[in-house]
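ok so for the tutorial part 2 we go from a plain amino acid sequence to predicted structure tokens. step 1 is just haveing the sequence, like this:
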Amino acid sequence: MEPAVHYVMTADGVRIAYTVTGNGPPILFCSELVSSHVQLEWSQPVMGPLLSEFARYNTLIRFDPRGSGLSDRVLGQTLDEFVLDIEAVVGRTGFREFALVAVQLGTPAAIAFAARHAEQVSRFAIGDGFARMADLLNTPQSRTLTAAAQNDWVMATEAIGYVVFGSGREESRDWGAYIRSCIGPEAFAPTYLDFVATWDASDLAPMIGVPTLIVKHQGVQVVTMEMVKDLATLIPNAQFAIVQGTWADNPEVFARRMIAFVNSGVGDAPPAPELSSSGLTAILFADIVDSTALTERLGDAAFREKARELDGTLRSVIREHAGTPIEGKLLGDGVLAVFTSARQAIEAPGLRHRWRRGWPSAPPRPPRRRRHSRGQQRLRRRRQHRLTHQRSVRAGRSAGIGDGALAGADIGWRAVRGPRRAGGEGRRRAGAGVGGGGGGGVMEQPRIQYAKTSDGVSIAVCTLGEGHPLVFLPVTNSIGIEGLWQIPGIRRNLERLAEGRRVVLYDGRGVGLSTRDVEDLSTDASERDLEAVVDGLGMSTVDLLVSTFAGPFAISFAAHRPDGVRKLILVSTVCRGRDFHPPRELRDLRNLVEINWELYLQTQSLIMYGWTEEGRRWAEGLVSDVNKDAYLKSFAVFRNSDASNLLPQLACRTLVMHWRERQAGISIETSKDLAAAIPNARFLTFSRQGGMTLFGDWDSTLAPVVAFLDDDLPRYKEPQLPSGTAIILFADIADSTALTEHLGDAAFRAKARDLDGALREVIREHAGTAIEGKLLGDGVLAVFTSARQAIEAALACGKAGGDAGLPLHLGIHAGDVIREENNVYGGAVNIASRISGLSAAGEVLVSDVVRTLARTSAGVRFEDRGEQKLKGVGEAVRVWVVAENQEPRTENP
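step 2 — the prediction. this is what the tokens look like for a chain of 893 residues:
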């Protein structure tokens, strides 16, 4: 709950907003100018959890410095003016002694206050702090943000969310909106920054005589390690500590570190507990009672809204009791949380009296980092009306598909080497990466070989799988082979793409492991790279997979080698460079190119490839693999390229795929014109879920590619989650708790991962759509448009579960569903869940609706199990067992 806001007048007549919350030894928290808002900060994903943690153990005093938040928007021009703000708040609250905590830009004023009022400060804790503002303003990140703020204030504030706070995810945009509430663009005006540059507390730092702790986040780049070390050197006997990540990664842990220090030796004030990553923990499950009945009574939309509000309330309560809600782990219609104290775990559910009857609106809360409204209809809820053969449902979840084996046969290139830099530039990566799929472990590196072009350039190549070669054409604005291999989701899709074909990846000249120091980056030079790679394969024909800027030179290569290219797939690309129109977000970044190349690449990749962890990895690879001069020169070549006159000459079978979202920078008219100009080209639109990276999304992007390569495109339909009537299949592992105890956690999870992949493959083979991320119990939820296909898929899933030694409960129902993001909800989903819970291990149960739809088409028998009362469903539902069809038996006379 937001604390009450009060005001105090400074000695020079400025009104300062402040709050006092919590109980215990007092802490005065000095925030920074750009992110201070004593009312809104409690609902932010970084400051909210951070401040809540302080307020749980201490009396927390917060204020907005002049010029920010709810205080008078009068920008201070000297450090002394900000000290006046602190003095006014301290005088009004009446605390004679308190601990002082300062972060980043709030540090210089806090140092000045501590030096001048030593008798009032008991301990001093600093996070990513420094003494001289000029040091901060001279960093490349600060210079870039300052320049950006003059041109586009919105874009600049979103960049602050990534660069300063380290968010770098979807909520970076939310941070931008929050920062715009805290401060205006005038704070970044050059005339004001001239005043800011004079703020210097380095002469006062040696006068601090209280115990001091200085903590540096390794992931915060805008405040350099040298700046923080300099401050630690200036303050006598200051302790120095380094923590991993950024402010956005785990603000509660950072707060506990500071609380433990400032409360050390102060009465009985408890230090905040550190949550262990493994070992003994208290586990809390919270789940809505009779959610199916509530859905029927309230309606799907109203129930979903109430469930969202309750979710936020539950998570706030858990944090207030020193627990950690598992992000993204929405089990049933509630949450899963872990605690280090059984008492606190018991107290957390005891706060249910805080909520009014009928589910209230939740108090403001930090938005969760990966807010997916999934998991609201979980198999866990099936607790009543079980038949004698049924089991209690384990509240677990299955994992994703494990990594497959890396395959790469020797091919006829001139040099064979391990993965190292072909050119003179260094490499960021050392050792093995992190494994993809469901587990950790060592990630096997791709086997790198080299091809030599006709003009002497070394091209790094790797292959996966066996069969007809599919060559992916790189572009200069993409990361190289090694970078792709560091992203688990892309790696899994590449291995999957290599099933039944040889996937060939290579780094173009000037990129990644290929020769970096090259002058010729023309379209002809790119064709020479591809020519060297293709000739090294020793195959008469190849298939080409092309995206973005590689379109013109791929079209030219295919036209000049009519007998050498079998199939050409053009994904979100053009034949003329001038037809590419980058979205506004990318156009606005152009001024960053000369100011800060690294920040330009990071921000560009996060916009294009998604504000996700994989987007951050892509950004890291881009910084390492792409040379600025080569990038700019190659893009200029692309913009001036034109292969439109070659389109009628293409003799290969061609598929043109158009990405509907505007981020692609290509209009649908341009893509249609491209397809129309190529003889007999096929055209397909799609909506990509994995950012702009071609290999990031299987169902919408790579599945139609595979269908085209396998001559199966007419039967392929881009999966769409329905709104309206759908056939719903639930599959769940039977007796998973007993199996876990019998097999052990690790062995069970490994088998569950393998089964998860097998089930999803079966669902795809039967034209169904498995709900990604919708891992219910230890199985899957899928939707179909055909009752026959759903029944066939269920029978195949049952066989897969039996073969894996993990028999399944399977249930199918048909009804209206609500599509929300990438999930489906509604009362029909609840009924399918209940029906699945009635089935015996290995048995498929269907509702009477499904039996009616498939009675004559499914080729199976249905055995009546009678009407069953389902928990939360007002009317009984007749269910039927699906049985294999048998020839009628003839009795002997």
